[in-house]
Description:
The chain has 198 residues and is an alpha/beta fold. Helix content is 40%, strand content 18%. It contains seven helices and seven strands. The protein has a five-stranded parallel sheet with strand order 5-2-1-6-7, with helices on both faces. It has a two-stranded antiparallel ribbon with strand order 3-4. Strand 1, helix 3 and strand 2 form a beta-alpha-beta unit. Helix 3 crosses helix 4 and helix 5 (106-117) crosses helix 6.
Amino acid sequence: MKLSELLNESPCDENIQKLLYDGLDYDGSSADLVMVLGSRKACDYRMPEAVRLYKVGKAPQMLLSGGQVQKTSLGEMAEWDSMKRVALSMGIPESDILIERWSKNTAENFMYSDELLMGYLPEGITIILVTTAYHMRRALCMAHKFMPKYDFIPCPVQKGSATKENWYKTEKGRLTVLDEWRKLSYYIRVGIFEDIEI
């Protein structure tokens, strides 16, 4: 089924589950790089998973992407700064950390990261993508649009109020996934990314 076909149906629980969560579990593969997308809570939710992947040898480097200034648990600072502080505090060598510090949204995460990696890492490398579970489908669509030279392995973080297992249990979880449904519908409608098979 095409992404647009699913989005044309009603956002019932079954369709939300298929759109945002099905087929996106991490498969355990190794890669050349772990890429972490920034957010207000990325230093709390996403970075521990990225550090775990690095420490068990799934990738030798990490790319921290996000320039938006946020009120994080470490204080008000740019997303990349909060993520880097966590990485260093958890024992990641600074030499293995790449920083993308300009992006303000998901599309820019990939646009600026593509520029950063150009000439630094060869085309065709594999990247483990770390973001929250409900955000992964949109993130992968953006990755394929703006970084088509690389292969991406999803590694969704199942924490917070909109995980694969709990999104339907609270009003906050439902509002989060419905907002994500609307964003995907908009991006497909205006042609920001391709109408993929899911």
